[in-house]
Amino acid sequence: MAETLTLQFAAPKRSMPPKHFADYTEEERIELLKDLGLPKFRANQIAKHYYGRFEADPRSMTDLPEAAREEVANALFPVLMTPVRTVAADDGATTKTLWELHDGTLLESVLMRYKDRATLCISSQAGCGMACPFCATGQGGLNRNLSCAEIVDQVRAAAATMAAEGSRLSNVVFMGMGEPLANYKRVVSAVRQIVSPAPHGFGISQRNVTVSTVGLAPAIRKLADEDLSVTLAVSLHTPDDELRDTLVPVNNRWSVEEVLDAARYYADRSGRRVSIEYALIRDINDQDFRADMLGQKLHKALGPLVHVNLIPLNPTPGSKWDASPRERQDEFVRRVIAQGVPCTVRDTRGQEIAAACGQLAAEGA
């Protein structure tokens, strides 16, 4: 099934970046360093710098032999991403960084600082091929998949930023640009590096990592069999197939029922509640009957293993849709809860800098 998914959602043919330290297995790193005349223990030493100290330039790794630093940099640490600009919102608590990749491709990541945590929203693709009409990223189309290291290095860069601020990165959400499960193999590899303890990864708790999807049902089931306990977030946006075929075009392949069946399988395998993402759009998906239907379907399919994350629609340039009024939002929440399903409204961050959910478009200067 993984091969089928690769064909169905293949990115346009673009050059992938040169391979980086984070793209290799530990055994491959040892072999590459051996070719440079370096002993086995150097792989672990370099990993401690990368994952533990968030350093990506061997030239600054003073415990490496000076003569070898340049060679290690050239062999294992090509420059993957260059920051183009960083903009701030929420009194500096939210920062959005525009990155340029080796081939000129642009992507964005968003770092959100809260009192009790720091959350990074990362991209797994440059652009997105899911074509959801209310999402700026989806409307821009898919450029290419990101490499594993391009995903991982977004985390390293944010962790370095938080360390410089005297704090730490605690949460990572795959809710930036792209459909994570359409870049399955690289995303799973990146997740393992995010959650593994140093020197094999950044040591972020699996419970603090969220992988979002619009509902690629076979890939959800495959993820369930990875024996991970990260949070699965399903961007449902409406409980009925008729409307979802329009709002989330992949629904034409996998219906609401199939998506929820796969989500239940994930919940049963992981023991984690599934988060249902629902962008509330005025006069489109905010009706009382849809709130009732959503609660009923989720209660039946997932029982206590579900939570609805209601998202007031964030504005995007040229969009004909806008957010539901507050009283409609409150009634929607009340009706979902009345069906026995927890429902809360997401705290929106970064809207004024186009950093909120559905707004990432990676526009150049």
UniProtKB/TrEMBL annotation:
Q: List the catalytic activities from the record.
A: adenosine(2503) in 23S rRNA + 2 reduced [2Fe-2S]-[ferredoxin] + 2 S-adenosyl-L-methionine = 2-methyladenosine(2503) in 23S rRNA + 5'-deoxyadenosine + L-methionine + 2 oxidized [2Fe-2S]-[ferredoxin] + S-adenosyl-L-homocysteine; adenosine(37) in tRNA + 2 reduced [2Fe-2S]-[ferredoxin] + 2 S-adenosyl-L-methionine = 2-methyladenosine(37) in tRNA + 5'-deoxyadenosine + L-methionine + 2 oxidized [2Fe-2S]-[ferredoxin] + S-adenosyl-L-homocysteine
UniProtKB keywords = 4Fe-4S, Cytoplasm, Disulfide bond, Iron, Iron-sulfur, Metal-binding, Methyltransferase, rRNA processing, S-adenosyl-L-methionine, Transferase, tRNA processing
Where S-adenosyl-L-methionine binds, per the record, is at: 178-179, 212, 235-237, 314
Q: Which domain of life is it from?
A: Bacteria
Q: Where is the Radical SAM core domain?
A: 114-352
Gene Ontology BP terms: rRNA base methylation; tRNA methylation
Does the UniProt entry include the keyword tRNA processing? yes
Which cofactors does this gene product need? [4Fe-4S] cluster
Top EC class for this record: transferase
Q: Which residues bind [4Fe-4S] cluster?
A: 128, 132, 135
Q: Which PROSITE patterns match?
A: RADICAL_SAM (PS51918)
Write the Enzyme Commission number(s) for this entry.
Answer: 2.1.1.192
Give the principal location in a single coarse category: cytoplasm
Q: Which GO terms describe its molecular function?
A: 4 iron, 4 sulfur cluster binding; metal ion binding; rRNA (adenine(2503)-C2-)-methyltransferase activity; rRNA binding; tRNA (adenine(37)-C2)-methyltransferase activity; tRNA binding
Annotated catalytic residues: 108 (proton acceptor), 357 (s-methylcysteine intermediate)
Note describing how the cofactor binds:
Binds 1 [4Fe-4S] cluster. The cluster is coordinated with 3 cysteines and an exchangeable S-adenosyl-L-methionine.
HAMAP family tied to this protein: RNA_methyltr_RlmN
Q: What does this protein do?
A: Specifically methylates position 2 of adenine 2503 in 23S rRNA and position 2 of adenine 37 in tRNAs.
More details: Reaction proceeds by a ping-pong mechanism involving intermediate methylation of a conserved cysteine residue.
- Belongs to which family? Belongs to the radical SAM superfamily. RlmN family.
Query: Which PANTHER family does this one have?
Result: 23S RRNA METHYLTRANSFERASE, RADICAL SAM CORE DOMAIN-CONTAINING PROTEIN
Query: What is the name attached to this protein's record?
Result: Probable dual-specificity RNA methyltransferase RlmN
Species lineage:
Bacteria, Bacillati, Actinomycetota, Actinomycetes, Mycobacteriales
